[in-house]
Structures are given as structure tokens and as C-alpha cells.
Amino acid sequence: MYLLGSDAIRQSLPNMPDWTFPVLIVFSVFNLACAIALFQWKKWGFWGFCISCFVALVVNLSIGLGIAQSLSGFIGWAILYGVLQIGKENKGWSQLD
């Protein structure tokens, strides 16, 4: 979205600083790497998503989004954490390297 739909985003947020797009693009690629790591059962993929959520929070607050919109990025993190906790002795979290 940041690569192809940047014009639409700029129209809805005209005061958005120029530095935000490169940061968001880098972290989108980073999120892809974290997703691949999770599919390979690597714990760093989860922690990478955590870092990405915090960076997105800072970026969203700095471009003028409200606190509720900025915190909504943590919903995906919470769902991921919950999914990794499903099961008794076969939890996903304990199977991550």
C-alpha cells in the first residue's frame, strides 16, 4: 500500500512528513521477514512484530493520527500472541526456536 497507494494516503493526510513513507516501507518489508520467520518457527519473528508495532505507534502519533487509531495496530499483535498461547502442552510459543 505504501508503495502503490502513497498518493491516496497523502490526500487523506496532507501534512504527513516525507520521511514517514520510507520508514513505513522498510517496516513493511521487515514485517514480511517476521511473518516468514514465524512460519519457520522462529521466536525472533514474534519479537520483530512487537518492535514493528511500537515503531508504527510512534510514526502514527507523529503524523497526527489519534491515540485510538495509533493503538489499533496492537490488535494484530495481541491476536498473534493469543494464537501462540492456544493449546495446553502443544502451545505454539513453546515450539518456537
Mean pLDDT: 85
| Alpha carbon gyration radius | 16 Å
- The end-to-end span amounts to 31 Å
Instruction: Tell me the β content.
Output: under 5%
Q: What overall form do the CA principal axes indicate?
A: elongated
Q: How many distinct beta strands?
A: 0
Query: What about the largest sheet?
Result: none
Low-confidence stretches: none
- How do the SSEs run, as a string of H and E? HHHHHH
How many structural domains? 1
Helical element count?
6
Structural class of the helices, strands and pairings?
A: mainly alpha
Q: Bin the helical content.
A: 55-70%
Descriptive overview:
The protein has one domain. About 5% of the residues are buried. It contains six helices and no strands. With about 100 residues, the chain is mostly helical. Helices cover about 70% and strands about 0% of the residues. It has helices at about 5-10, 20-40, 45-60, 65-70, 75-85, 90-95.
Features:
97 residues; mainly alpha; 6 helices; 0% strand; elongated
How would you sum up this structure in a few lines?
By secondary structure, this protein is mostly helical. It is built from six helices and no strands.
SSE diagram, text form:
Elements: H1 6-12, H2 20-39, H3 43-62, H4 67-71, H5 74-84, H6 92-95
Helix pairs in contact: 2-3, 3-5
